[in-house]
Specification:
With 271 residues, the chain is an alpha/beta fold. It contains eleven helices and ten strands. Helix 7 packs across helix 8. It binds adenosine-5'-triphosphate (ATP) and magnesium ion (MG). This is ATP-binding component of ABC transporter.
């Protein structure tokens, strides 16, 4: 289960500029050069601008925003699939930006798990083998990993399906495997980039319920990206809304009508 001493995720003054000479432009962006100007004058793309977010341990942090607003860019900084142009990404107090290759490999194996929109299951492996994949990579013994995997397979409602293959399962069931695989790692951080966006609405709501139920028990630090406002309001302890690479609204969720106004009117509601 999640480590009670885990200090969550803190993102500090994070900037990402895409392009060959990104570093050369960061000062100008800090001084106010806009995304459009950066693109038109210098052919670089502003992915993220001065992101500051605190994601406390045990919370679900939802990231919302229109297509191209920087959601995936942001979540990929947390396990450093993307290197920032400037800023800090502190996970449990350690800046992932400063990790060397070995530290980063260990960090990714043990501290983070991901659930993908397109499930990313291995087609020639059974449900059980897909679920224990991360434990294999961690070097956990087979007998132990089978125990852990079976527990999560049952917990996500797939008991009896462990010998099936992904193509024998519906989309919703495949995503249950994706979730079981991620949870088997027992990493304190769970990263979910539009994990439910490919699912039918009813299945999607089922999966939200599964996640909320499990979260009561495991209290991971979850970063959940979605386009869907109802999903955001249902799942999020905190919601941040991105536009053009900037956080334009943040709210404690489950009460946030402000978030609803912001996303639908495309203007900040200034609270
Ligand atoms: N490797 C890259 N090179 C250049 N520009 C990029 C790269 N990756 C992302 N971008 C740009 O950064 C911005 C943010 O993209 P990102 O994929 O993070 O958006 P998103 O909010 O996840 O969108 P979607 O909802 O469509 O998934 C966009 O303008 C995008 O074109
Ligand atoms: Mg995306």
């Amino acid at each position: 289960m999640a480590d009670k001493n885990f200090d969550g995720i803190k993102i500090r003054n994070l900037y990402k500029i895409f392009g060959r000479d990104a570093q050369a432009h960061v000062e100008a962006v800090k001084k106010g050069l806009t995304k459009t100007e950066l693109n038109e004058r210098f052919g670089h793309i502003l992915g993220l601008k001065d992101i500051n977010l605190d994601m406390p341990s045990g919370n679900i942090q939802v990231i919302m925003g229109l297509s191209g607003s920087g959601k995936s860019t942001l979540i990929r900084h947390i396990n450093r699939l993307i290197d920032p142009t400037d800023g800090e990404v502190l996970v449990n107090g350690v800046d992932v930006v400063k990790m060397n290759e070995n530290e980063l490999r260990e960090f990714r194996r043990h501290q983070t798990a991901m659930v993908f929109q397109k499930f990313a299951l291995l087609p020639h492996r059974s449900v059980l083998d897909n679920t224990l994949f991360g434990l294999d990579v961690q070097g956990v013994s087979r007998s132990q990993s089978i125990d852990v995997a079976m527990r999560w397979i049952e917990r996500v409602g797939l008991k009896g399906f462990e010998e099936k293959y992904p193509n024998q399962l519906s989309g919703g069931m495949q995503q249950r495997v994706g979730l079981a695989r991620a949870l088997s790692n027992d990493a304190p951080v769970l990263l979910m980039d539009e994990a439910y966006s490919a699912l039918d609405p009813l299945i999607r709501m089922d999966m939200q319920t599964v996640l909320l139920d499990i979260q009561k028990e495991i209290k991971k630090t979850i970063v959940f990206i979605t386009h869907d406002l109802d999903e955001a309001l249902r799942l999020g302890d905190k919601i941040a809304i991105l536009r053009d690479g900037e956080v334009i609204q943040r709210a404690r969720a489950r009460t946030s009508f402000c978030a609803r106004r912001t996303i639908t009117s495309r203007t900040s509601c200034g609270r």
